[in-house]
Structures are given as structure tokens and as C-alpha cells.
Amino acid sequence: MADDAGREYGYTAYSPYSSIAALTTFLERHLDHIAPGDTPEEQLVWCFTELVARGELREDRPLQFNYSQVLAWFEAAGVPAASDTWSWMNSV
């Protein structure tokens, strides 16, 4: 924005690869749809794409809302998740 000196925020959730099936199964139940795809990675990507399409993850939410929501889904799925955040602020 013209009056914004600039800033960026980064939010990351990590989980072991072995968690992909449990997380996908949880999200499929949440979405009430079996994820299409030939690989577990494609199925998980479809789930998150669908969450965006349905408006459950949106960029107009308050800061950290989506991040907190994703971590809550990891917890509800019973999979471990480590998280990390970073930010950059332009001081000009």
C-alpha cells in the first residue's frame, strides 16, 4: 500500500512425512470429500486448495488466523506439528 513502509510475515507448520495420511484423512472428513490425486502429496494439496476455495482459509482474516487454524487441524488430526514464525519490517 502507498502509505505502508512494508512488512512481511511468515508462518510455517512442520510435521513428519509419516503424518500425511492421518492429516489427509482428517481433512477429507472435515471437507466431507475424498481427495483426488495419485499420491498422498497430491491429495493433501487438494485438501488445502479446497479449504481456500471454500473460504475456510482466506487472506482477509486477522493476522495469524489461518496459521492458528492450520495448527488446530494438525492437533485435531492427532499429528505432531512444530511451528515457526518470522517477520520483516521496513524501518523507512
Task: Give an account of the 3D structure.
There is one protein chain. With 92 residues, this protein is α+β, with helices and mostly antiparallel strands. The protein contains 3 helices and 2 strands, in the order βαααβ. The protein has helices at residues 20-31, 40-53, 65-77; strands at residues 7-14, 82-89. The protein has a two-stranded antiparallel ribbon with strand order 1-2. The radius of gyration is 15 Å and the shape is elongated. The mean pLDDT is 91.
Helicity level, as a percent range?
A: 40-55%
Largest sheet: 2 strands, antiparallel
Integer-rounded radius of gyration: 15 Å
Helix/strand/pairing category? alpha+beta
Total count of strands: 2
Amino- and carboxy-terminal Cα gap: 14 Å
Note poorly predicted spans: none
Strand order of the largest sheet: 1-2
- Mean pLDDT comes to 91
